[in-house]
Every structure is written in structure tokens, then in C-alpha cells.
Amino acid sequence: MAVLIDGKATSQAIKDELKAKVEEIRKTKGESAVPTLAVVLVGDDPASAVYVRNKKKACEYIGIGSRSIELPAETCEEELLALIDDLNGDAAVTGILVQLPLPAHIDENKVIERISPEKDVDGFNPVNAGRLFTGRPGFVSCTPAGIVELLKRHDINIAGKHCVVVGRSNIVGKPMALLMLKENATVTVCHSKTVNLQEITKQADILICAIGKPRFFGAEYVKDGAVVVDVGIHRMEDGKLCGDVRFDEVEPKCSAITPVPGGVGPMTIAMLMYNCVQAAGMQ
What we know:
Layout: E1 3-4, H1 7-29, E2 36-42, H2 46-62, E3 65-71, H3 77-89, E4 95-98, H4 108-114, H5 126-134, H6 142-153, E5 162-166, H7 173-182, E6 186-190, H8 197-201, E7 206-209, E8 227-230, E9 234-235, E10 241-242, H9 247-250, E11 256-257, H10 265-282
Parallel strand pairs: 1-11, 2-3, 2-4, 5-6, 5-7, 7-8, 8-11
Antiparallel strand pairs: 9-10
């Protein structure tokens, strides 16, 4: 039976560590040194609203400040960029997060590039992406960072292993590959145009599934004893959540596997909180 890689318990442990660290900052440096996260939400997308609420709850739990800025969907690009400029210049704000996706008339790349790299706690700014690429310190995209932390805290050795990442997005796939290289894995990146995908994934010691297709990966994609990380999250017609992996089918073949929900998802917000606390120290 596979080890269940528990994201809920791991994220809670990280938040508890951060809570203690914030209490220490408050005691030794005063209230003004405590981090504050500014979250900007444009429009009324229901899923985005839930994510923003969860981030606010996490801020409250670890004891950092949160500033929620909600703008109507018709907000123009210039207004949003001007707001980011104001937040960049506000010394009380240590981290800035603009909730994606944005309305179609706003260029997401312009918005991401406008956030100061020192306040880019999502790790999406090209400067931070470049720092990751060249091995320099900077903020790392929260989901890939959370996956590495999950593996390490479950004593799963990464060095020397063959890691196959299925997905090449700027948010998960690309930074994931770079982080696994940093941990001395041998990395293969696959995507929608990969020929003979199944042959490649069956070579993986660690298989990271971020293809964005519900229940895509069955047992035929996984070698015996592999570690499987499921990054996908989808709501089925019956209301239940599932990932990119057919869990019941794949789990018997694995040495370890992340569930959906309760695996990678909780780690994303935990690592966002980690980046917020790091930002305060850097600034």
C-alpha cells in the first residue's frame, strides 16, 4: 500500500512554524516589522473569491496583516497598474498578489511584470523566474515550492532520481523542472505534443502530473514503486473533486502518492505564507 503524502498536515506544520516566527518578529522588532500581504481581486469570479478568502484566513492564522482590494470587472488596465505602483511604494506592504485570472481586457503579463520582484510573493515576475533559472535567491512559484517541501518532509529522496514532469506552464511545469534539477534529480519535461508519453512516464521514479485533464493518468502510465504527485484539481459532475490521476487505479502501484483533495493544494497557500514572511526579512 502506498504512503499517502499528506498535504493538509504538512501545510499545517509549516503554518505553525511561521506563526511562531511571526510572534518572534512581533516581540523583537515590533508591530511595524510584521509582514502584510496585499491581495488584489478584479471582478467577481467565484473560484477566485474563494482563493482570496482562504489566503486571508491563512494570514490571520499566522498573524500577518492582510489587505484585500476588490475592484470591479470593468477596471481598466491603467487603473490596476497604477494601484500596483502605489503598493510597490507602500513600505507597510511586504507582499503583493494579484489574483488570476484577470478579465480579458487586462494583460496579465504587464500586471505580473509591474509587481516589484521584492514583493512578488507569487514568484511569477520574470526577474524571479530568471533568478530560479540561474540558481540565485528569489521567490519561487508556490505550488512547485510546495511539492518539493512535501517530498522532503515525507523523507522522499530526490537526488539522483528520474523525475518526469507532465506540463510546461510558467506557474507549475517549468519552475517544477528547475526546482527538481536544483535538488539533483534527472528531469524530463513532457507536454501535450510529447510522442509516446506513456513510455516516458513509466520511466519516472517521481512522476509529477500537471496536465490539467481530469483522471488522465491511469496505472498504465506509472511504473511499480514510483512516487506520484497529482497537481490537478477538477470538480466532477457529481460535485466531487478529482485530480489528473485515477487515484484508486494508480495507488496500488506507487510507493507514495498525493491525494486530491488534501495533497498539493494546501501546500500552495502554506508556501505563499512562507514567501510573505521571507519578504519581510529581505526588505
